[in-house]
Amino acid sequence: MLGVALAAQTGMSVIDQGLPTLTGFIKADLGLSAATAGLAVSGMAFGRIAGSYVAGVAADRLGERRVLAFGVLTAAALVATATTVPTTAFFVLLPLAGMAGAASTPAGGRLVLLAFPRERHGLALGIRQTGIPAGGLIAAALLPWIANQGSWRWALAAAAGIAAVAVIPLLLLPADPTRAPAPPRGDRPRLLRDRNIVLLAVWSCLVVSGQYALLAFLALDFHQRMGLSLASGSLLVAVANASGIAGRIAWGAVSDRALSRGRKPLLVVLTGACLTSALILFAVPDRAPTAVLVVAAVAAGLSLIGYQGLWVTMVAEAAGPRRVGAATGFAITFVTVSIALSPPLYGLVADLAGTYRAIWAALAVVQAVALVPALLVRETGAAA
User: What share of the chain is helix, strand, coil (3-state, %, to 5)?
Assistant: First the structure.
């Protein structure tokens, strides 16, 4: 179960995380402005905003396997079609693909949650969440190379093919007769009144902004301040991604081992680690040796990218098995809004300050604010 959920998430993430790596190729080929090219990259994110909650409810009601397979295969088909159509249709198909692909996290998370006992949720869901940065690493290594050898259309078609192939193990699983009962209808108002789910959604919106500040601006900051080439800066981003993969597993596993004390204490510790990593990035001197830059990237990746395993586990357990899909989709809706807004807002901070370093000061303030919802979560220990 864990393997097929991880494969499906990784395959979908090759598309999600790979599209930004092709921005330059798309811009040059279609003759787009920078803003219009950015809109192309954001198209799938806008689709996820619209589709996450619906996909989560569908997973609870129709079954997570069916929704996961249908969502990823539909997204892959739409993306593959988008590589063959005129520009206008391309911009229409990408949000539709995002809506379909939004099923990967709520449906995949529900699949894993129901397959494991509570004392193994953190590790299992942490491993599943590594599919997102793992898909990003695959995309960064493969898609620009294909685009350079052929075209961005071939690269995006390859990403769609990888996503479709990644779902095959899920389709080969035997039917599972045991499923959690469907939740009552009209569940969204109940989710809005659920203190813990709302607080965890707010917390993740604040923390995920750091992940995308890191991915968008770390290389640019080290290029501006330290004189690193953009290629070398991008390697440090890859280091942060790799440590984020380790972090997603580690935070979840540690929360399982300390389950008798609840997961909230580790959530507070993780928030403190996010704040500390932002301060480290701000404090790195302009002539720091490479080893210091690597340490800063690792610390940031472990916390700002590695947070998702623990967070998804706490959302799933707060919701319980009957509505885990809806709750995860509900939370991801707001997280996706934060993902869409974070790069331009942090970029505005850098423009106003005249330096990318100011981003890390702003990020530190945001992570300090994230301590508030982390402290206000009330863990019952009865969920799941």
Answer: 85, 0, 15
Residue type, 250: A
Q: 94: which 2 tokens?
A: 């990408």
CATH number at residue 366: 1.20.1250.20
d(CA 327, CA 331): 6
Domains contained in the chain, number: 2
Q: Is 237 exposed, middle or buried (0-12, 13-18, 19+ CB in 10 A)?
A: buried
Distances (CA, A) of 52 to 20, 56, 89, 109, 289: 20, 6, 23, 12, 43
Domain with 339 in it: 190-384
For the record, the structure tokens of 184 come out as 């009552």
Chain segment 36-46, per-residue pLDDT in tens? 776 776 788 88
pTM assigned to the model: 0.78
pLDDT digits (tens, 9 = 90+) for 325-370: 888 888 888 888 888 788 888 888 888 998 889 999 999 999 999 9
Contact 302/246 with Cβ under 8 angstroms?
A: yes
Strand, coil or helix: 83: coil
Tell the residue number behind the tokens 């699983």, with chain if given.
173
Q: Specify whether 98 is located in the same domain as 221.
A: no
* CB-based burial, 87-113: b 16+ in 10 Å, e otherwise: eeebbebbbbbbbbbbbbbbbbbbbbb
Task: Name the amino acid, one letter, at 22.
Answer: L
Q: Are 280 and 300 in contact (CB under 8 A)?
A: yes
Which residues lie closer than 8 Å to 263 by C-beta, 6 or more apart?
Answer: 122, 255, 310, 313, 314, 317, 379
Q: Is 366 in contact with 189 (CB distance < 8 Å)?
A: no
